[in-house]
């Protein structure tokens, strides 16, 4: 997957989504930590405000001596409200008062209230909670605090006992702190929105990039696959800078390839012409050489018969007829190379076929003190027996002429994958190195008395059967092979 551009972009998009999710989760976590810290800070500030009321009350009650006012004294309530007002004047958002365990609220103040008219009474909706926290502080004789969470803010209430001449008094404070509202909350929402928009834009851009690149690459692939390799198409620009660089390089490579192909075709035609002319020259030279010698011999015998009288004419005619037979054999062998007859395939028993071929040359081999044998790995195969026998005859005759006395000639039929390999191996040193590259061309021979047509016939027979002919030279002798694609049915 990571080996393709599409896969990498998909992985990049997935990583971006994961990173955005982790960032959003971290932002929410930090916000909750910040909200918790804010609530804790507000709770501490609320408790300090309660302590401030208690301190102010102690200073105020010190002037009463042993005759404290009654809890229902209106003037005393007004002075206590002033005490609370003074204690909370520098504490924004904090409201509070003094509570009597039997009669309820004795004093109340909210000096930092932003409303048009100042508040003079505790909020009615929170009176049960105010009563509860004061009762808890009074019963435990120590400070108490409660938190009441709402959807967007938290209510903090604190109370502390007020020792003094009036029994059952407590001071209380109350404040609201915003958790899922206010500046921090809106900053969180704005950050989340920006993060979401960024991820969506990045996803859209990556998706568009992936689809655009995939479409352009598919177009380039289709254009290249619909043309032959030797004739690359001219690709249109994609309007993608990086892809257009590749397109321009491919177009330039196609142009150079076209020029090189044209130049190569020209050179190939020139080389083919040169090789054809060279082959024609070699054939013409070989034919001229092979014909000139018999003609010279016939001319010499004819001139001798004319000059010598009637007694020399019979011998001269016999020599002339022999040379004519030699020329006729040469013409027949040339025709066998040029006719290219279609093989008449038959189902042949390979071992018997090789034995018959070898039997025709046993006496000739024995005359040169050579042993000739045959082996076959195949049982039956389909080929033209006349053509293949003619090819094997030429190879066996060459082996008899090249093998040293006392050596062995081996004729074999081998199975090589789906082909029949006919091989003739002798102990000779093989043809000269300077003619090995042209060994199967007409009139190429390493023997002074050879015509150079035998191996040409071998190659033509192999090619006619859809096969090949080759020469293999080793330190242990020379082998000629005919490889024939030969189905068994």
From TrEMBL:
Name of the protein: histidine kinase
Organism for this UniProt entry: Paraburkholderia bryophila
EC number from the UniProt entry: 2.7.13.3
Stored SUPFAM superfamilies: ATPase domain of HSP90 chaperone/DNA topoisomerase II/histidine kinase, Homodimeric domain of signal transducing histidine kinase
Domain of life: Bacteria
Keyword Transmembrane: yes
UniProt cross-references to PANTHER family, sorted A to Z: SENSOR PROTEIN CREC
Membrane topology summary: Multi-pass membrane protein
GO cellular component, one term: plasma membrane
Keywords: Cell membrane, Kinase, Membrane, Phosphoprotein, Transferase, Transmembrane, Transmembrane helix, Two-component regulatory system, Virulence
